[in-house]
Design a protein that fits this description.
Helix content: 40-55%
Largest sheet: 4 strands, mixed
Keywords: RNA-binding
GO biological process, one term: regulation of alternative mRNA splicing, via spliceosome
Order of helices and strands: HEHHEHEHHEH
Number of helices: 7
InterPro entries: BBP-like (IPR045071), KH_1_KHDC4/BBP-like (IPR055256), KH_dom (IPR004087), KH_dom_type_1_sf (IPR036612)
Distance between the termini: 86 Å
Shape: extended
Strand content: 5-15%
Radius of gyration: 26 Å
Protein name: KH domain-containing, RNA-binding, signal transduction-associated protein 2
GO cellular component, one term: nucleus
CATH class of the largest domain: Alpha Beta
Length: about 230
């Protein structure tokens, strides 16, 4: 009986040692992988670094809401202002970022690495280049501001401002038409109806982007469709 007890003790002790070694090995692997992802920052010299993040757009929770339109705003002006205020570059990328779904499917099937983001869920890519503390502060501010645009509310302050801006743009454009060409709805509130929400997803915002790298997805205030148009022009 004593012999069996000793054997059981030896086996149990051996099993515990194996489990302990296995756990330690798993922790070491996890730690090494985590360390590989982390880069050492030199904050004493304030050497500029690039910081980039991807922000998920909640389209799965709210599939009928036009987040792309709200993020870009009329003629892309909302995203222009976001970039100016936060000093970050932003781009709406991923599945559903292009208005032309057929073209999106073609680009996704093309195998071109420039459009690999189309396999990902819809997201906003935010990036900046500055001294470490400043760069992370900019990203933090950008995250807080972008979050306001990801609220699926048709009547919040952002949407109301975009409606007034759209009305002003429409009224300004109508001045170029003669009375017989003037549409009774141009510049009116009916042209701003949120039921026709895709009106907020406008044409390319006209920002100067000659220096953009085709392989760099952190484009300046562009949706992926606008990015594709820019690449075709080059």
């Amino acid at each position: 009986m004593e012999t069996m007890t000793n054997k059981y003790f030896v086996v149990s002790q051996h099993t515990m040692e194996l489990v302990s070694k296995s756990n330690m090995s798993a922790l070491e692997d996890r730690s090494s992988k985590s360390m590989e992802k982390l880069k050492m920052l030199d904050i004493t010299r304030d050497r500029p670094v690039k910081v980039a993040v991807k922000v998920a757009v909640p389209v799965r929770d709210h599939p009928k809401f036009n987040f792309v339109g709200k993020l870009l705003g009329p003629k892309g002006n909302s995203m222009k202002r976001l970039q100016e205020e936060t000093m970050c570059k932003m781009a709406v990328l991923g599945r559903g970022s292009m208005r032309d779904r057929k073209k999106e499917e073609e680009l996704r099937a093309s195998g071109d690495s420039r459009y690999s983001h189309l396999f990902e869920d819809l997201h906003v890519e935010i990036s900046t280049f500055a001294a470490p503390a400043e760069a992370h502060a900019r990203i933090a501010y950008a995250l807080a501001e972008v979050r306001r645009f990801l609220v699926p509310d048709y009547h919040d302050d952002i949407r109301q401002e975009q409606m007034w801006e759209m009305q002003a743009l429409s009224s300004s454009s109508s001045l170029t038409f003669s009375d017989d060409q003037h549409s009774p709805n141009r510049g009116g509130v009916t042209d701003m109806d949120t039921s026709n929400d895709d009106k907020l997803e406008m044409e390319p915002n006209g920002m100067e982007c000659n220096a953009l790298d085709k392989n760099d997805v952190q484009q300046v205030g562009l949706s992926s469709e606008q990015l594709h148009q820019h690449q075709q022009q080059q």
